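Translate sequence into C-alpha coordinates.
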Amino acid sequence: MDNDSTSSHFLWLRQLASQQSFGPRDRLGTLNLIDQEARRRAVEAVVRGDPVSLARAMDDEGSCTVDASITEVMGAHERRFGLDHVHLECHGRSQTHIDALSHVSFNGTWYSGWAVDHLDAPSVADWSGGAFTRAVHVDVNLVRGTEWAAAQDPVEGSDIDAALSAMGISFHAGDALLLDMGRDRFEESGGELISQLQATDDFMQPGVGATGAEWIADNRVSVLCWDFFDAVHPSVPRFSVHPLIWAIGLVIVDNCTFARLRAVTDMHGAVEGALVLGPLPIPGGTGSIINPLVLL
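Result follows.
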Protein backbone atom coordinates (compact mmCIF):
# COMPACT_ATOMS: atom_id res chain seq x y z
CA MET A 1 0.00 0.00 0.00
CA ASP A 2 1.28 3.50 -0.78
CA ASN A 3 2.63 5.59 2.09
CA ASP A 4 -0.24 8.13 1.99
CA SER A 5 -2.88 5.41 2.35
CA THR A 6 -0.93 3.67 5.08
CA SER A 7 -0.53 6.95 6.97
CA SER A 8 -4.25 7.64 6.58
CA HIS A 9 -5.16 4.25 8.00
CA PHE A 10 -2.97 4.67 11.06
CA LEU A 11 -4.23 8.22 11.57
CA TRP A 12 -7.71 6.70 11.69
CA LEU A 13 -6.52 4.15 14.26
CA ARG A 14 -5.04 6.90 16.43
CA GLN A 15 -8.30 8.86 16.22
CA LEU A 16 -10.25 5.81 17.37
CA ALA A 17 -7.84 5.30 20.25
CA SER A 18 -8.18 8.92 21.35
CA GLN A 19 -11.94 8.54 21.81
CA GLN A 20 -11.52 6.06 24.70
CA SER A 21 -15.05 4.78 24.14
CA PHE A 22 -15.08 2.72 27.34
CA GLY A 23 -13.19 5.15 29.56
CA PRO A 24 -9.54 5.40 30.61
CA ARG A 25 -7.77 2.31 31.92
CA ASP A 26 -10.46 0.00 30.57
CA ARG A 27 -9.66 -3.74 30.71
CA LEU A 28 -12.52 -5.32 28.76
CA GLY A 29 -12.34 -3.66 25.34
CA THR A 30 -15.19 -4.49 23.00
CA LEU A 31 -16.62 -7.01 25.46
CA ASN A 32 -18.16 -3.85 26.97
CA LEU A 33 -20.52 -3.85 23.97
CA ILE A 34 -22.16 -7.07 25.13
CA ASP A 35 -25.10 -5.69 27.10
CA GLN A 36 -28.34 -7.31 28.22
CA GLU A 37 -29.87 -6.65 24.82
CA ALA A 38 -27.03 -8.50 23.07
CA ARG A 39 -27.42 -11.43 25.44
CA ARG A 40 -31.18 -11.43 24.88
CA ARG A 41 -30.59 -11.60 21.13
CA ALA A 42 -28.23 -14.51 21.73
CA VAL A 43 -30.84 -16.43 23.70
CA GLU A 44 -33.49 -15.81 21.04
CA ALA A 45 -31.10 -16.99 18.30
CA VAL A 46 -30.71 -20.43 19.89
CA VAL A 47 -33.29 -22.83 18.42
CA ARG A 48 -32.03 -26.37 19.05
CA GLY A 49 -29.24 -25.85 21.56
CA ASP A 50 -26.72 -27.74 19.41
CA PRO A 51 -23.10 -26.71 20.15
CA VAL A 52 -20.72 -26.30 17.21
CA SER A 53 -17.01 -25.79 17.81
CA LEU A 54 -15.02 -23.26 15.78
CA ALA A 55 -11.67 -24.65 17.01
CA ARG A 56 -9.09 -26.15 14.71
CA ALA A 57 -7.47 -29.43 15.68
CA MET A 58 -4.35 -28.70 17.70
CA ASP A 59 -1.10 -29.71 16.04
CA ASP A 60 1.98 -31.28 17.60
CA GLU A 61 4.55 -29.46 15.51
CA GLY A 62 5.88 -27.21 18.25
CA SER A 63 2.65 -25.30 18.91
CA CYS A 64 1.28 -27.98 21.21
CA THR A 65 3.48 -30.56 22.93
CA VAL A 66 2.31 -33.14 25.44
CA ASP A 67 4.63 -35.02 27.81
CA ALA A 68 2.52 -37.90 29.09
CA SER A 69 3.39 -40.26 31.92
CA ILE A 70 1.78 -42.95 34.04
CA THR A 71 2.16 -43.15 37.80
CA GLU A 72 1.36 -46.10 40.04
CA VAL A 73 -0.49 -45.83 43.34
CA MET A 74 0.77 -48.14 46.08
CA GLY A 75 -1.75 -50.46 47.62
CA ALA A 76 -3.35 -53.86 47.49
CA HIS A 77 -4.66 -53.32 43.97
CA GLU A 78 -2.76 -51.97 41.01
CA ARG A 79 -3.98 -48.47 40.20
CA ARG A 80 -2.49 -46.10 37.71
CA PHE A 81 -3.15 -42.53 36.70
CA GLY A 82 -2.26 -40.92 33.41
CA LEU A 83 -0.60 -37.55 33.85
CA ASP A 84 0.74 -35.02 31.41
CA HIS A 85 2.48 -31.72 31.05
CA VAL A 86 1.23 -29.61 28.13
CA HIS A 87 3.08 -26.74 26.45
CA LEU A 88 0.91 -24.43 24.34
CA GLU A 89 1.81 -21.71 21.86
CA CYS A 90 -1.02 -19.19 22.28
CA HIS A 91 -0.46 -17.23 19.05
CA GLY A 92 0.59 -17.98 15.50
CA ARG A 93 -1.25 -19.27 12.44
CA SER A 94 -2.29 -22.72 13.65
CA GLN A 95 -3.97 -22.89 17.04
CA THR A 96 -7.37 -21.32 17.62
CA HIS A 97 -6.69 -18.63 20.21
CA ILE A 98 -7.95 -15.35 21.59
CA ASP A 99 -5.74 -12.24 21.56
CA ALA A 100 -5.58 -10.29 24.82
CA LEU A 101 -5.51 -6.50 24.91
CA SER A 102 -1.78 -6.78 25.64
CA HIS A 103 -1.08 -8.37 22.26
CA VAL A 104 -0.59 -5.24 20.11
CA SER A 105 1.14 -2.04 21.24
CA PHE A 106 1.97 1.33 19.71
CA ASN A 107 4.44 3.88 20.99
CA GLY A 108 5.03 2.00 24.21
CA THR A 109 1.41 1.51 25.18
CA TRP A 110 -1.20 -1.22 25.06
CA TYR A 111 -4.89 -0.50 24.59
CA SER A 112 -6.36 2.32 26.69
CA GLY A 113 -2.98 3.87 27.44
CA TRP A 114 -1.55 1.09 29.59
CA ALA A 115 2.26 1.19 29.47
CA VAL A 116 3.76 -2.00 28.07
CA ASP A 117 5.86 -2.40 31.23
CA HIS A 118 2.99 -1.70 33.65
CA LEU A 119 2.73 -4.60 36.07
CA ASP A 120 -1.06 -4.35 36.16
CA ALA A 121 -1.63 -3.99 32.41
CA PRO A 122 -4.62 -5.87 30.96
CA SER A 123 -4.18 -9.56 30.25
CA VAL A 124 -6.32 -12.47 29.09
CA ALA A 125 -7.09 -13.17 32.76
CA ASP A 126 -9.40 -10.13 32.73
CA TRP A 127 -11.77 -12.16 30.53
CA SER A 128 -11.91 -15.25 32.73
CA GLY A 129 -15.60 -14.59 33.32
CA GLY A 130 -16.22 -15.48 29.68
CA ALA A 131 -18.57 -13.95 27.15
CA PHE A 132 -21.99 -14.78 25.71
CA THR A 133 -23.50 -12.86 22.82
CA ARG A 134 -25.37 -13.23 19.54
CA ALA A 135 -23.17 -14.55 16.74
CA VAL A 136 -23.71 -13.88 13.05
CA HIS A 137 -22.01 -16.19 10.55
CA VAL A 138 -21.03 -14.26 7.42
CA ASP A 139 -19.76 -16.41 4.55
CA VAL A 140 -18.39 -13.91 2.03
CA ASN A 141 -17.77 -16.65 -0.53
CA LEU A 142 -21.50 -17.20 -0.95
CA VAL A 143 -21.88 -13.78 -2.53
CA ARG A 144 -18.52 -13.87 -4.28
CA GLY A 145 -19.22 -17.27 -5.82
CA THR A 146 -15.80 -18.57 -4.75
CA GLU A 147 -14.44 -21.36 -2.56
CA TRP A 148 -12.22 -18.99 -0.61
CA ALA A 149 -11.27 -15.33 -0.59
CA ALA A 150 -8.65 -14.76 -3.28
CA ALA A 151 -5.30 -13.27 -2.31
CA GLN A 152 -5.65 -10.61 -5.00
CA ASP A 153 -9.09 -9.54 -3.72
CA PRO A 154 -9.05 -8.56 0.00
CA VAL A 155 -12.35 -8.85 1.89
CA GLU A 156 -13.82 -5.38 2.31
CA GLY A 157 -16.77 -3.86 4.13
CA SER A 158 -18.89 -4.09 1.00
CA ASP A 159 -18.43 -7.88 1.01
CA ILE A 160 -19.78 -8.12 4.54
CA ASP A 161 -22.75 -5.88 3.70
CA ALA A 162 -23.51 -7.92 0.57
CA ALA A 163 -23.42 -11.20 2.50
CA LEU A 164 -25.72 -9.86 5.23
CA SER A 165 -28.12 -8.51 2.61
CA ALA A 166 -28.16 -11.83 0.74
CA MET A 167 -28.96 -13.66 3.99
CA GLY A 168 -31.63 -11.14 4.93
CA ILE A 169 -30.17 -10.68 8.40
CA SER A 170 -29.19 -7.64 10.43
CA PHE A 171 -26.07 -7.10 12.47
CA HIS A 172 -26.35 -5.18 15.75
CA ALA A 173 -23.80 -3.47 17.97
CA GLY A 174 -22.49 -5.99 20.47
CA ASP A 175 -22.94 -9.00 18.19
CA ALA A 176 -20.01 -11.29 17.36
CA LEU A 177 -18.95 -11.44 13.72
CA LEU A 178 -18.03 -14.94 12.49
CA LEU A 179 -16.18 -13.98 9.32
CA ASP A 180 -15.88 -17.05 7.10
CA MET A 181 -13.40 -16.56 4.23
CA GLY A 182 -12.97 -20.24 3.33
CA ARG A 183 -9.56 -20.98 4.83
CA ASP A 184 -10.40 -24.67 5.35
CA ARG A 185 -11.04 -25.15 1.63
CA PHE A 186 -7.94 -23.09 0.78
CA GLU A 187 -5.78 -25.39 2.90
CA GLU A 188 -7.46 -28.55 1.59
CA SER A 189 -6.43 -27.41 -1.89
CA GLY A 190 -2.79 -27.18 -0.77
CA GLY A 191 -2.67 -23.51 0.20
CA GLU A 192 -0.45 -22.45 3.10
CA LEU A 193 -0.28 -19.29 5.18
CA ILE A 194 2.94 -17.53 6.11
CA SER A 195 3.57 -14.92 8.76
CA GLN A 196 2.88 -11.38 7.58
CA LEU A 197 6.18 -10.43 9.18
CA GLN A 198 7.92 -12.70 6.66
CA ALA A 199 6.00 -11.50 3.59
CA THR A 200 7.91 -9.74 0.83
CA ASP A 201 6.58 -6.58 -0.82
CA ASP A 202 5.18 -8.47 -3.81
CA PHE A 203 3.57 -11.29 -1.78
CA MET A 204 -0.22 -11.55 -1.43
CA GLN A 205 -2.31 -13.55 1.03
CA PRO A 206 -6.11 -13.74 1.57
CA GLY A 207 -7.66 -11.73 4.37
CA VAL A 208 -9.44 -8.54 5.39
CA GLY A 209 -8.63 -5.16 3.85
CA ALA A 210 -8.81 -1.60 5.19
CA THR A 211 -12.52 -1.00 4.64
CA GLY A 212 -13.23 -4.37 6.24
CA ALA A 213 -11.45 -3.08 9.35
CA GLU A 214 -13.52 0.10 9.16
CA TRP A 215 -16.73 -1.96 8.95
CA ILE A 216 -15.76 -3.87 12.10
CA ALA A 217 -15.15 -0.67 14.05
CA ASP A 218 -18.15 1.25 12.66
CA ASN A 219 -20.59 -1.60 13.35
CA ARG A 220 -19.30 -2.06 16.90
CA VAL A 221 -18.39 -5.73 16.66
CA SER A 222 -17.89 -7.21 20.14
CA VAL A 223 -15.89 -10.28 19.06
CA LEU A 224 -14.32 -11.04 15.70
CA CYS A 225 -13.93 -14.75 14.95
CA TRP A 226 -12.17 -15.32 11.61
CA ASP A 227 -10.16 -17.88 9.70
CA PHE A 228 -7.84 -15.80 7.51
CA PHE A 229 -6.21 -12.71 9.07
CA ASP A 230 -5.37 -9.24 7.82
CA ALA A 231 -4.92 -9.29 4.05
CA VAL A 232 -1.41 -9.10 2.63
CA HIS A 233 -1.77 -7.05 -0.55
CA PRO A 234 -0.04 -4.00 -2.07
CA SER A 235 -3.28 -1.99 -1.85
CA VAL A 236 -3.81 -2.35 1.92
CA PRO A 237 -1.74 -1.80 5.08
CA ARG A 238 0.23 -4.87 6.12
CA PHE A 239 -1.91 -5.00 9.27
CA SER A 240 -5.42 -3.64 8.74
CA VAL A 241 -7.40 -5.28 11.54
CA HIS A 242 -5.13 -6.47 14.35
CA PRO A 243 -4.19 -2.88 15.37
CA LEU A 244 -7.85 -2.43 16.35
CA ILE A 245 -6.87 -4.37 19.49
CA TRP A 246 -4.82 -1.32 20.45
CA ALA A 247 -7.21 1.30 19.08
CA ILE A 248 -10.59 0.11 20.40
CA GLY A 249 -9.86 -3.02 22.41
CA LEU A 250 -11.19 -5.33 19.71
CA VAL A 251 -11.52 -8.91 20.92
CA ILE A 252 -10.21 -11.25 18.20
CA VAL A 253 -10.34 -15.04 18.01
CA ASP A 254 -7.78 -16.15 15.43
CA ASN A 255 -7.60 -19.36 13.37
CA CYS A 256 -11.23 -20.39 13.56
CA THR A 257 -12.60 -23.06 11.25
CA PHE A 258 -16.13 -22.79 9.90
CA ALA A 259 -16.38 -26.17 8.18
CA ARG A 260 -18.58 -27.69 10.89
CA LEU A 261 -20.73 -24.58 11.16
CA ARG A 262 -21.07 -24.39 7.39
CA ALA A 263 -22.25 -28.01 7.29
CA VAL A 264 -24.97 -27.23 9.83
CA THR A 265 -25.87 -24.08 7.92
CA ASP A 266 -26.36 -26.14 4.76
CA MET A 267 -28.64 -28.51 6.65
CA HIS A 268 -30.69 -26.05 8.67
CA GLY A 269 -30.11 -22.64 7.11
CA ALA A 270 -28.72 -21.25 10.36
CA VAL A 271 -26.78 -18.00 10.05
CA GLU A 272 -27.01 -16.89 13.66
CA GLY A 273 -26.66 -18.38 17.11
CA ALA A 274 -25.02 -17.65 20.44
CA LEU A 275 -21.26 -17.45 20.87
CA VAL A 276 -19.77 -18.76 24.11
CA LEU A 277 -16.17 -17.88 25.02
CA GLY A 278 -14.20 -19.04 28.03
CA PRO A 279 -10.52 -18.03 27.88
CA LEU A 280 -8.06 -19.57 30.32
CA PRO A 281 -7.40 -17.26 33.31
CA ILE A 282 -3.67 -16.82 32.66
CA PRO A 283 -2.29 -13.90 34.73
CA GLY A 284 -0.28 -11.65 32.44
CA GLY A 285 -1.16 -13.75 29.38
CA THR A 286 -1.19 -12.03 26.00
CA GLY A 287 -3.54 -14.69 24.65
CA SER A 288 -5.12 -18.04 25.33
CA ILE A 289 -5.93 -21.22 23.49
CA ILE A 290 -9.72 -21.33 23.23
CA ASN A 291 -12.54 -23.52 21.95
CA PRO A 292 -15.21 -21.07 20.75
CA LEU A 293 -18.65 -22.66 20.80
CA VAL A 294 -21.67 -21.53 18.81
CA LEU A 295 -25.06 -22.65 20.12
CA LEU A 296 -27.63 -23.02 17.33
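Note: The first helix runs from residue 3 to 19.
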